[in-house]
């Protein structure tokens, strides 16, 4: 690979970070007089195109984290021989530094994971993953207007959950949301560290520290709006860089047509067919746990802007994921990567391809990585703070304490990123938890399910996980293996039906447990009414369904709604019924 010199790499990386820091601080200065409400969110302020750029920047980095976990966690170390970094079986680099690049090591990122997916599942896998990653974005365009109509002052999903299902269910969902976003942040830093090592041969830790400092400074000063604005710039940069990189690969890479048929990558596979079901369920439901998406959804000025913005983002994301995944196919068909060579790993197929390209191409990739990483990281930072402020403190904290929270949260993220392989194993359970919880949660969006309460949501969510354990125990004939299936220790891409079965068991089990909880609750309430001599009213139609006012919170009455114009916040004290 025509790798840039150390001096050139440092210049590209740190000048890019410096540009984002200067720009971010400038915007923060311009926003210094914003209210707390504007700091935490930006309801009904954004038009379609900026929304599209934000969803593009956020979604592509989220997919990087997801696919890396699914591919690599639970696998055994694979020796790789990346010419510019790793030279011998001892794992030392040409410069004598310990090599940290191993195919299954956590956090290798999009440039490792997508090409490897192509080398495993071929054209079918690339197309399926691209479609099933991009299409779920449309759920925000569909559900966003519905939730905003019911909860117009909210800016995260947990606020609607609180008003519909009560405090217990809201805290349950908030816990899952905060843990998921925290782990995404840890995974992102781990990915950044290793990809910088692979691209430059340098230790990636200094880049991690600089990125944390840069995003923390401007995010703590500017809040959500600054994250939104920087994502616009970074999203546009990523699109431009993808176009340049695509043209370069098209011109420089030479395809050996004889390798296309022999590679078998154009043929469908069982795994490819399984992914058609697994990926939509895993991605669609897990997106519900990401508050950065919901804050952007509610930031849309109109429902039309939301539909247009998300539609553009879905199409662009589809194209980007297809192009990045195709590099694995091109690396194989150009002879840069030999799947039959035990000393080569599909996880570094992209880098084998880079060896055939000019050194300046690596420079473009470096800028793209920095742009994507900072875009995702500042989005998660602002989303975590907004979610915690709303869910845990009901937005009553002084804005300076909120800013301090942005700074403080970065320390455990960095510490855990250094121990990511052991810590992030628990990330995978969030896929099954979301697949269990979200189906029973969204039933409450329909007025026909007015009798559905928070008890059913919590029991259904936990019951879905129990169902996965039961399925795994039956499938493997071993309770220990059944428990390990909850963590998806073998990832999604195994050679059996265990992962597929888990993602069938989770949502179906969640719904079954939810309706069982409903039966138990109604039975208890019916017996309680008979014993105490009062009327059984658990199935009565709630009054709010007949007293809806356009533009007002659906579930609350007037004395539960409190407006604070000075802070730019509207607080609703209504709590839905849990039991």
From TrEMBL:
Family the entry assigns: Belongs to the sodium:solute symporter (SSF) (TC 2.A.21) family.
PANTHER family, sorted: AGR155CP, SODIUM/PROLINE SYMPORTER-RELATED
Lineage: Eukaryota, Fungi, Dikarya, Ascomycota, Pezizomycotina
GO molecular function: spermidine transmembrane transporter activity
Annotated source species: Hyaloscypha hepaticicola
Annotated TM spans: 12-29, 126-144, 165-185, 205-224, 236-255, 275-295, 307-337, 357-377, 398-418, 424-445, 457-477, 497-520
Entry keyword Cell inner membrane: no
Cellular localization per UniProt: Membrane
Recorded topology in the membrane: Multi-pass membrane protein
Keyword Transport: yes
Alphabetic keyword roster: Membrane, Transmembrane, Transmembrane helix, Transport
Gene Ontology CC annotations of this record: plasma membrane
Protein's name in the database: Urea transporter
